[in-house]
Specification:
By secondary structure, the chain is an alpha/beta fold. The chain has helices spanning 8-21, 25-51, 108-115, 130-147, 149-162, 167-183, 188-192, 228-239, 253-265, 280-290, 301-310, 334-346, 370-379, 396-407, 442-445, 448-454, 473-482, 496-504, 542-549; strands spanning 68-70, 72-74, 77-79, 84-88, 95-100, 196-199, 205-212, 216-221, 243-248, 274-276, 294-298, 315-318, 323-327, 356-362, 413-416, 436-439, 462-468, 488-492, 510-513, 551-558. The protein is built from 19 helices and 20 strands.
Length: 572
Amino acid sequence: MMRTRPPRTALNRLSTFFVNHYRCTAVHTLLLKFVDLIRIRFGDLIRFLRTLSFATLEPENISGSHPAQVQNLVQGKWKESSKWSTIMDPLNGEPFIKVAEVDETEIQPFVESLSKCPKYGLHNPFHFPERYLSFGDISMKAAHMLSQPAVSDFFTRLIQRVCPKSYHQAFGEVFVTQKFFENFCGDQVRFLARSFAVPGNHLGQQSNGFRWPYGPVAIVTPFNFPLEIPVLQLMGALYMGNKPLLKVDSKVSIVMEQMLRLLHDCGLDLEDVDFINSDGKTMNKLLLEAKPQMTLFTGSSRVAEKLAVDLRGRIKLEDAGFDWKILGPDVQEVDYVAWVCDQDAYACTGQKCSAQSILFMHENWASTSLISSLKSLAERRKLEDLTVGPVLTLTTEAMLEHMKKLLEIPGSKLLFGGEPLENHTIPKIYGALKPTAVYVPLEEILKENNFGLVTREIFGPFQVITEYKQDQLSKVLDALERMQAHLTAAVVSNDPLFLQEVIGKSVNGTTYAGLRARTTGAPQNHWFGPAGDPRGAGIGTPEAIKLVWSCHREVIYDVGPLPRHWEIPPST
C-alpha cells in the first residue's frame, strides 16, 4: 500500500542531520525549505493519483506500441468481445486504440439487460423516489471531480487524442459538462419530476400530472463531442428514471468509457447503464430486437430518417444542421464580427453540428474589411496547435470535389483556402483541408438546380458566403424557408425591426440574435436543439431533459365520499 504521505520520522532525521552538520543559518533555512518541498510535492503526487483513481490509461502514453483498450459494460460487468477493431491515430495513422466491438451474435446480453427494466422505469414519483436524491449526490461528486485540474486536464487531453481540436475547444467541452453536473446537484434532480394538481368536479376528486420515465431507452451519439453530448443525454435519461443503453462512435468511445468509470467512483450503480461498442448494422439489429421505449439519436440526417422508420417513431433526433448567419444592415465592430464568424465556421475544424455553413452578408458589409479579416483569421489556424486538424467523416478529395462543383456555378469564386493542408501525417481516410470559403451569388443559390448543392452540409472547415441587397431580404428568408435542417442560426444586428422580421419568419431551434450573435458554443445554461420537427431533441436544460427523457402521465384521484342518499341512476 502506498503511503498517503512520506514518513515523518525519515524526513525529521534528514532535517536533523543537516542542521547538526551545517550551522550556517542560510544553509539551514534553505535545507528546511528543500525538505518541506519534498513533503509538499509527494503529497501532491498522492492527491493526483487518488484523483485519477478511476482512470485505466494515460492519454499521452497511448500509441501503437502501447495501445489503449475499450471495453463494453453490460449487466453490471465490464466485458470484452470476440472481435477487436483498431482505431487509427487521426494525426499520424498509427493504430493506437483497440475497441472490443460487439457483433450481431453477441447482442443478447444487451437485449436481456434492457428487457429487465420495466416500462415504469428504475424510479418514478411513486417508485423508489430515493434515487432522485442519489443522482443529486452523484452529480455533486462528479462536478467536484471534473473541477479538479488533474481530472479536467485528463479528459481534455484524451478528447484531443481521438478528436483533434485545440486545447481551448476540448477544455470547453469538459467545462460545460462540469457546469451541467453543478446544475443538477442536491434537490435539482427531483425538481425535474415536479408534478401539478388541478381540483376536480366534486369532493375527493383531483387530477395530477406527473413526468414519467420511458423505462428501457437507448442513446446513440457521434464523434465530434466525445464527452459533452453523451454525458448530458445520459444523465438526463438517468435523472428521469430510465435505464439507458449508450453507444458512442467507436472512434472516440474511449472518452465515455473513462467517464463511466469516473461516475462509478461517484456512486453510479454498475447496472444503471449499459455501454456498447459496435458498428451501425449491429446497433440497428440490437435496437430492433431490444425495442427500447425511446431512442435518442444525434448524428447524420440519413441515419436519423432510417431509424425513425425502423423504430416506428419512438425516437428523438438532434441531427445535422446547415446553419446560417445573417449580417444585418447596421455595420459595427467589424473585427469582432469577423472573429466570431471565424470561430463559428472553423473552430473544431468545422466539425460541429452548429457550425456556420452559410453567411448572408448585407451589402453594407461588402465595403468593410470583413472578408479580408476572415481570410487573415483563417490563415492563422495551424495544425501544430490543432486550431485546424483532421476531418473525420470526409476525405480531402471529397471536400475539394464539392468546392469544384460550387465554383462551376456562374459568378462564384474562391475567397480563401481551397487547398489541402501541408506537411502533415494525417491518414488519407480522413480529410485535411485549409479553412475554405466560397462565394456564390444569391440569385444563383436560389435556383432549383443549385440549391441542393449549395446547402449540402460539409462537416469540415468549409462555408459558403453570399451578399444580399437592401431589397433582397425576402429572398434570403425564402432560402431559409427552403432549408431542411433547422438547428442553429445567428442574426447579427442590433436593429430591433430587422431582428423582428428575421426571427418572425424563420424557425431554427437555437437562434442567437444581436451584435454578438453566434451559431456555435452552446453552453449548459440554455436549450440547444432543432425546431420545426416533432421528433426534435434538446440537450442540457431542465426543459430539454423533461421533453426528451420523460412523458406525461395523469393520475386522477376520486376517493369520495359519495353524496348522501345516493341511488343508482337510470341507464344512459
